[in-house]
Amino acid sequence: MSRLIKMHSNEMEDIEAIYPGDIFCTFGVPCNTGDTITDGSSKIRMNKMYVPPPVMSMSIRHKDKDRKNFAKAMEKFTREDPTFSCGETIIKGMGELHLEIYSERLKREFNVENELGEPQVN
Question: Can you tell me the distance from the alpha carbon of 59 to that of 47, in angstroms, rounded to the nearest whole number?
Answer without folding.
Answer: 33
